[in-house]
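Protocol step 4 of 6: structure prediction from sequence.
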Amino acid sequence: MTTQAHDNDDIPEEIDFSGGTRGKFYRKDAQLQLPIHLEASVQNTLAAIADAKGVDLSVFVNDLLKKDIELIQMSR
């Protein structure tokens, strides 16, 4: 495998991590909040419904998903 030079000279080819601290930002019980990307038409529709109900879009979508999960689990 051949390594080609990058056009960006700002990035060094090698980075020295010898002074780094392992696990400095590790948190045993941390939970990641993954971003979810909706199609524009889906987001617009859900946002309009959430707005009409007077609730935050995230709260509305989470409630919908919880109901779907419950239905899926009941059908097993």
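Step 5 (inspection) to follow. The mean pLDDT is 89.
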